[in-house]
Amino acid sequence: MKNTKIIEQEIVIKTTPHEIYEAFMDSKIHSKFTEGKAKISREIGGSYSVFEGDLTGKNVELIPDKKIVQTWRSEGENWPKGYYSTIT
User: Fold this and answer.
1) What DSSP assignment string belongs to 14-75?
2) What are 48's strand-pairing partners?
3) Family, per the entry (predicted)?
4) How buried is 6 (Cβ within 10 angstroms: 0-12 exposed, 13-18 middle, 19+ buried)?
5) Over the stretch 32-71, which tens digit does the pLDDT of each residue have?
6) For residue 62, what are the β-bridge partners?
């Protein structure tokens, strides 16, 4: 088992909560601003794949325009299998 750690980071983005929610939860909008293929379920328990499939995870909690909680992992070789981050 690899060592893990907790990283806490807070950022401020000057836009509306609705625009942020849609940027993370709408496949077309996400693809446009990241310039990478995205397939995003809008359902709790649904999966997502972004950045051409390099990042994958599942939706844990979704409150439209207020909160997104997702598991997150890189499919790269440096990310241990079975390890996920939780992002809010």
Assistant:
1) SS-HHHHHHHHH-HHHHHHHHTS--EE--STT-EEEETTTTEEEEEEEEETTTEEEEEEEE-
2) 40, 57
3) Belongs to the AHA1 family.
4) exposed
5) 989 999 999 999 999 999 998 889 999 999 999 999 999 9
6) 68
In the numeric block, the tokens 């390099």 are attached to 54
Report pTM: 0.83
Contact by Cβ (8 Å): 48, 70: yes
CB contact at 8 A, 52 and 37: yes
According to DSSP, the residues that pair with 70 across neighbouring strands are: 59, 87
Residue ranges and CATH numbers for the domains of the chain are: 17-87 (3.30.530.20)
- Do 48 and 87 touch, CB atoms closer than 8 A? no
User: Which residues face 85 on adjacent strands?
Assistant: 72
